[in-house]
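Encoded backbone
================
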Amino acid sequence: MKNGLLKIYSVYGLLVFALVFIILLPFFLLAIFVPPLERIAAFLNHVWARLFFFFMFLNRTRIRFEEKLDRKQRYIFCANHTSYLDIPTVGLINHNFKFIGKASLKKVPLWGYMYGKLHILVDRKSIRSKHSSWVKAKEALQKDFSIVFFPEGGIRSKEPPKMVPFKEGSFRIAVDEQIPIVPVTIPHNHILLPDQMPLTMHTGLVSVKVHKPIWPKGKDDEAVKLLKQEVRDIMEKELDRYL
């Protein structure tokens, strides 16, 4: 598409994203202010993602599962992160989870309020914030929520989809709580919505592969190290197909 058409398509995408959110906002507010309804937030995220990509009619979606996930099982989802499109892309996975996201997302008008109330925000420059997010993640797991991590700690790669080193937190929690990690690879989003200003949406395939769960093998530091490496190896092998 020519630059002018890409700009129009990008503005259209922003409007679709905002309008779907506004339509769902009353239900998100119920999830925020009526504690027993908090669990509907994950389903609302899924509906939002589905509607967003449905109306982005020039972007097709394909989600592949290596293994059917257990709806009653808690998981830690670990996804590579190259684009702002990754959050709605992970939302295509219909599971009861909360995101771990950067604290700056709270500054987004209205949407940031919802995100901060229903998910877990962390300022990686603050030791106190990192500890607080760790505690909140464990509390969410105790309430039978799953957690979504972007283990690279943000959009940091200069050569996407190649990944930067992983942070340890998600793997430490998986070992501490003895719950499986589900690697998630997203190969194309850095092309569809590059992390550069002005944000410009391109047409193409929104693809996500959900790998089979990996259980921790032990409860010590070595188990954390092995789990982190195994997850990374799986994700790199899948992403290498697109280099």
